[in-house]
Specification:
The chain is mainly α. 55% of the residues lie in helices and 2% in strands.
């Protein structure tokens, strides 16, 4: 929008879709499904366990076998959404845990990128780092922990040791 890549109309449609999805996910967090013989038969036919007490719709949608459209018969307050919005609701709910994990990993990555390694770093003085890790770090001389973490041969354990060493601030006599 800011750079003229899409029209205002298309951007407005995107915002509307995003809002529709967010509202519906919030509604599903509150909406209860009560167990009935008919509903439990549907659950069993989908390959999942029946319910014996009321359950929030969002919890049912976290089951891999159940899709948003499967709940139509028991969801009288359902808004009219297009296919893309319904699919996005399924994706957001089913993959919520994975999405949160990825966002956490992105934050960790940003922190590693901003954690600088002094140019005068003597990796041979770091106890607990693998010999291969020391050699690779000396060879490539990364400027940040993020760069160091992407060097083949530098293990996650080496990165943790490096981070602890940097936190203590004892490199090169400092």
């Amino acid at each position: 929008m800011k750079f003229g890549l899409i029209s205002q109309e298309r951007y407005n449609k995107f915002l509307e879709k995003k809002e529709n999805i967010a509202k519906e996910v919030e509604r599903l967090k509150k909406q209860l499904v009560r167990p009935t013989e008919e509903f439990n038969k549907m659950l069993v036919s989908k390959g999942t366990t029946p319910i014996s007490e009321p359950v929030r719709m969002i919890e049912l949608l976290k089951r891999t076998e159940i899709k948003y459209d499967d709940l139509t018969s028991v969801d009288v307050d359902r808004p009219i959404l297009n296919k893309a919005e319904r699919e996005q609701i399924d994706i957001q709910i089913k993959y919520e845990g994975y999405i949160k994990l990825q966002l956490t990993n992105v934050e960790k990555f940003k922190k590693l990128e901003s954690k600088l390694i002094p140019r005068e770093m003597d990796y041979t003085k770091i106890k607990g780092m693998s010999l291969e890790g020391i050699q690779k770090l000396q060879q490539f001389e990364p400027t940040s922990v993020g760069q160091a973490s992407r060097i083949s041969g530098v293990s996650p354990a080496d990165i943790n040791v490096l981070l602890m060493y940097l936190e203590r601030g004892v490199y090169n006599g400092v």
